[in-house]
Amino acid sequence: MSDTPSVSVVIATYNRADLLAETIESVLNQRFQDFELIVVDDGSTDGTREALGAYGARLRYFYQENRGPSAARNLGVSNARGAWIAIQDSDDLVTPEHLETLVGYAHEHSDCAMVFANGSYLGGAEHNRETIIPAGKSRRLAEQGVGLADLFERSIVRLQAALISKPCYDAVGGHDESLRICMDLDLSFRLFMKYPLTYLDRVVFLYRKHQGNTGRNEELRLVENIRVIDKLVAEFPEVRKMLGQTTIDHRVAYRYYRLAKGRWTRHQCDDARSALRAAIALRPYALKYRYYQLRWNHSES
User: Fold this and answer.
1) Does residue 139 lie in a domain region?
2) Do 229 and 118 fall into the same domain?
3) How far is CA 211 from CA 17, 91, 120, 165, 173, in A?
4) What pLDDT is recorded for position 300?
């Protein structure tokens, strides 16, 4: 391991000792080898520390009391010695050419704050497609570039497929430690608004779907998504002109509607009505939202 590696790979983990070894092996087996591996244990109680002992000097280990993935990533990056950061989840795998692909571009485009690519699903095709970003959209992003609307309409950035300039990461303040699910989207917005980003039409990681995926918490995901959008508009008022207020309102309203439906299903009826009112305040003429408001207001639940 070099004292001044080109890349610092940061893995934040919490109680995934059963999956972590496979993730680490995929990182260590990269074709590009000028990197250091940093693992931050976010207060695991499942023997993670003991499992990592077998790797010795092949990785640098840090422990913190449980503060969430954003805080764990920030701790890892604060100790990184590389000029570029590759953030990995502790349950996914990287392809052997992951760093080779991203570093090759980054070294030729030093002004780029982040270069990111595509991923596929470890268990085979999902959602009727082979890759996380559909093939046609992937080609378009690579050919035409990434716009704010691309990031806004759907969360296309997976940091498992990204390489980030450490100076740029530090300059925008790193991860928002109050976020546990939508921190990738939030960081991507802040980087995009200040620096050039690039997308490559390549698959560089494999996403593992399982019951422990953090993103399966639908309530928290939607609440954080709304917060991230509000934060984006507050920090960068020019976003209103770039995207259009109607586009912003439609996305936020739909997330409030999804929150409302989920809460109603869980019999959190007052909270469901409250979320639906928020959606209607943004889109007062949306017939679907008005239908559910009328239906729920006459329900005794």
Assistant:
1) yes
2) no
3) 15, 11, 18, 32, 31
4) 62
Residues 6+ apart with CB under 8 A from 64: 40, 41, 42, 43, 71, 72, 75
pLDDT tens digit sequence for 68-81 = 999 999 999 999 99
pLDDT at 211: 58
Tens-place pLDDT, residues 191-238: 999 999 999 999 999 998 855 555 468 999 999 999 999 999 999 999
Cβ proximity of 166 and 82 under 8 Å: yes
Q: What is the chain's mean pLDDT, rounded?
A: 94
Q: Which segments of the chain have a pLDDT < 70?
A: 1-2, 124-127, 210-216, 300-301
Give CA 101 to chain center in angstroms: 20
- Both structure tokens of 118: 């595509």
Q: Which of 210, 241, 257 is the last residue of a domain?
A: 210
Mark which of 210, 227, 245 sits at the end of a domain. 210
Backbone angles phi, psi at 26, to 5 degrees: -65, -35
Same domain? 245 vs 203: no
DSSP class of residue 123 equals T
Q: What is the residue-wise DSSP string for 218-256?
A: HHHHHHHHHHHHHHHHHH-TTHHHHH-HHHHHHHHHHHH
Backbone φ and ψ for 69, nearest 5 degrees, come out as -65, -35
The answer to whether residues 97 and 33 belong to one domain is yes
Token pair of 277 as six digits: 């009112």
Is the Cβ–Cβ distance between 10 and 80 less than 8 Å? Answer: yes
Count of domains for the chain: 2
Let me know whether 107 and 240 are in one domain: no
The model's pTM is 0.93
